[in-house]
Amino acid sequence: MSPILLEMKGIAKRFDGVPALDGIDLAIRSGECIGLCGENGAGKSTLMKVLSAVYPHGSWDGEILFDGRPLRARSVRETEAAGIIIIHQELMLVPELSVAENIFLGNEPTLPGGRLDYPAMNRRAEDILRELKLPDVNVVLPVKNYGGGHQQLIEIGKALNKQARLLILDEPSASLTAAEIEVLLEIVRDLKARGVACVYISHKLEEVAAICDTIVVIRDGKHIATTPMREMNVDRIIAQMCGRELNQLYPSLPHTVGEVVMEARHITCRDPDQPRRKKVDDVSFEVRRGEILGIAGLVGAGRTELVTAIFGAYDGPSEGEVWLEGARVDTSSPLKAIRAGFALVPEDRKQHGIVRDLSVGQNITLSVLERFSSLSRIDDSRESREVDTQIRRMGLKTASPALPITALSGGNQQKAVLAKMLLTQPKVLILDEPTRGVDVGAKFEIYKLMLELAAQGIAIIMVSSELAEVLGVSDRVLVMGEGKLRGNFVNQGLTQEMVLAAAIGQGNQHG
């Protein structure tokens, strides 16, 4: 058995007097992969920020031993020098710098005289990208030229370049395709074989089960269990995380589907950089009152472009008509769309859903501030009461509404964005990847809320990459492929195979 590389003993961390971690113990051996599991807000990311000195020694209680010696790091640079590398949920790339410059950021090779050795840097970056199965990426181009999945793998390339002895992966697959996830898991297996220890944090429990040797579960900042994966399965992990059995992943709540409330006619979106190329090609559909309409398709199918164009948020040329309750409406900008009766919870909550500099409460009320204003002043007490109501309604975990929104876990940020958009009292609610980066317990609560809103007569359009989710909650499913509408199915007896066949242009278009 490999020697213990890391021990964390009695780790405690408080924010404004509220405990976020309460005496956590963790041990990991060289070549071992630990799955760190827990619901949103359980303290997983906080624990890893303590380990990597994002929260420096002295700001928390307890002891960390690395290679048997006390680790009292006061900066990330110190933990990286020891061989502890963290890949955060939020990518730490500089968009304007090249791929190679990002991979070497802070560790650039130099020539005599101090100039950067770009040829050496580019050669090493190309080697790393080949290892990551990304040989088509040009390392001299700005990293902003590449999509979220490629950027996530480039972030992992940075870690590989730093010769990690302990690699922490915090939701590493949130923006990856199925093929990219397989590459990621193979990389982790290779690292384990080389003796690198890994901590893997993911809400995709199938990944955790596939790659991890040991499962550590924490709940509400406390250690619940440490169990070898061979004694676990996904259902047992869920039960330990939630403190209860989740007998069904998708709630059932009767709701009536009524008359057509919204029509999208001939929606076309053009590539901002290549206007002759269509991202969405003449798509028309309708959604009914109280209906949950799922939109499925492979990566690049045009799903997000379609719904952002309907909401007036597409960043390129688009055309088409949007009709609401029998009348054509102007949704050429998000503000006009909100006033018409639409709301959008965007795919990328960090870039488009939250305002990072504002508090939890300020983010929640941002879309309806005029409701609390009088003579150009905000009625703070009325606003606070509404914020408290929404926090209770959404089951949002926060020590205080005054905390920065960035202090919350990803799932709780998502709940805040959802609360913000629901305050606009929409007739049509568009949810783009509503449960990305959200744990199974919180997913259940979001599905339940969707069904409750549908029962109230709100029309819901949900874009999701998870076919099981689309089939689990939708009344009807649209399938897109290469910018075109390839299927329109009532969700009765519909299977993942039927949806995939439509997505690649095979099978019946209606069902």
Automatic annotation (TrEMBL):
GO function terms (MF aspect): ATP binding
Highest taxon, organism lineage: Bacteria
Pfam families assigned to the protein according to its UniProt record, in alphabetical order: ABC_tran
Alphabetical keyword list: ATP-binding, Cell inner membrane, Cell membrane, Membrane, Nucleotide-binding, Repeat, Sugar transport, Translocase, Transport
Keyword ATP-binding found: yes
Entries under SUPFAM superfamilies matching the protein: P-loop containing nucleoside triphosphate hydrolases (SSF52540)
Transmembrane region(s): none
Alphabetized PROSITE patterns for the sequence: ABC_TRANSPORTER_1, ABC_TRANSPORTER_2
Residue ranges annotated for the ABC transporter domain, each copy included: 6-245, 262-507
Protein name as annotated: D-xylose ABC transporter ATP-binding protein
Organism: Massilia phyllostachyos
